[in-house]
Amino acid sequence: MPYIVLFSWYPPSQSNTVAQRYLETLQKYPVISSIKRIVPVAVSSTKEGIEVMVVDEVKREDIGEALDYASQFLTEFRDIEGFRYQVRTFSTVGEAMGYIGMG
Hints:
This protein is an alpha+beta fold. Helix content is about 35%, strand content about 35%. The longest helix has 14 residues, at about 15-30.
């Protein structure tokens, strides 16, 4: 099953705003049933600011629905000054080996 990894970054001065928005958005858009949340929220402080990562596992047939959910969720943060995000998909090692004929 592939993984969808959400990354976001924001300035420390926006921490309270982002935290409040996260709680509000999670109530507005609860995690959909096709997503298995492997890492709910991991937070790290860097010299550039705060970095957050979420890791979701989805079935291949549900990836479109899960990506739509991620986009809808993250769009709620678009008006927060300095907030940026990236959504990436990752294959498991078994899937990746299959792509090169070794699985």
